[in-house]
Predict the structure of alpha,alpha-trehalose-phosphate synthase (UDP-forming).
Amino acid sequence: YERKDGRPTKQRLLVVANRLPVSAVRRGEDSWSLEISAGGLVSALLGVKEFEAKWIGWAGVNVPDEIGQRALTKALAEKRCIPVFLDEEIVHQYYNGYCNNILWPLFHYLGLPQEDRLATTRSFQSQFDAYKKANQMFADVVNQHYEEGDVVWCHDYHLMFLPKCLKEYNSTMKVGWFLHTPFPSSEIHRTLPSRSELLRSVLAADLVGFHTYDYARHFVSACTRILGLEGTPEGVEDQGKLTRVAAFPIGIDSDRFIRALELPKVQDHIRELKERFAGRKVMLGVDRLDMIKGIPQKILAFEKFLEENPSWHDKVVLLQIAVPTRTDVPEYQKLTSQVHEIVGRINGRFGTLTAVPIHHLDRSLDFHALCALYAVTDVALVTSLRDGMNLVSYEFVACQDSKKGVLILSEFAGAAQSLGAGAILVNPWNITEVASSIGYALNMPADEREKRHRHNFMHVTTHTAQDWAETFVSELNDTIVEAQLRMRQ
Ligand code: G6P
């Protein structure tokens, strides 16, 4: 690839996602402090070797004044990030409203919200209008930074309208779109009032990717059944134009976790945790506090296990890390109180003066504390009601090479398709089944644990986030070359 001035350079990758991978705190009129979140996705996307990547997204803060916007833009540029500024009203309607109150629950099979199902078509419509407006604002920023030859990779349900906006601006732009959540059955998707418009906008992309083959299949059938288009083994065809649709299961940066376990700081944490929970088996849940994660169901299953197994009462503890998220959305506020109530009841019922069966934390842990926790865990409980992939299950496996603990995994998480042979798969709605799986996991003989762990560890360390990103982008480039060849024929 050549720049405009003729200098050879790496191909540029513009990653567009709702959120930038930073937390930005304003320190003064024109000063910001930034912390880059060093998660697997960030290193995967900013670390693809053949590309020079930039990240475009919302910084998660309201910056109404120009001085603040200019200063933040400058500070972010050093981190290869470009901000999209969204005002409070747009955030309310687009992010809290359309994204997190409508699309998120729908894509996770929780249906449309009751209020909208009744008479609030106006509010539904105004949220959808804000969604389109926000997507257009993302597109405007992409357009300002786009150079010929760049690859533009749009992410997630927040930006389903973006491929269309980008192609309207420049039909030769290379556009990929990837969904990090499930794509539901077409029978669910068809309840959405704006179902067709969203599908058509996504189809404007050259390549559309999902975590699993099932999600890709659901998307193709939504396009055939709702839009009446033709589904082919390659994707979806509309008047001779093919949009390629395929599965690209994401992974983690497993080395980062494995290396962290060697750090003295993490070793210290591990020692402390072992002392603290000596004589008890440790069970662990790490989730955003979201209804799709099935936290109440998981805790009820643990209660049932305790009820049926009195001999385990003082020999097992459940540590539940519940990271607050989307706290302005009423559904999330309700869930928080519900979980607190259940935890309180169970601890009241089974606790003693010196110990409780559940430690519930409403906050995130830093990376090193989290690695230590994964490493000392005997049984991890990932019991999402629906989950696009679920990387907590991967992170746990990466940290378990010495302990070889057991993973109990929901069959409704995308990860069940890759870690299914090593994990104990459960239906999270079936509390009796989850309770008995807890018993099975706690009593599992070492050779079975070893065998199951081997399978999962092999998978997690060979299917990394980096591979995922490279595969998607090279497939996108190939798709475009193939389309050009087809045009010439
Ligand atoms: C899911 C979504 C992401 C989102 C994350 C955190 O993993 O797929 O797009 O960023 O949840 O949610 P939040 O609303 O806090 O960004």
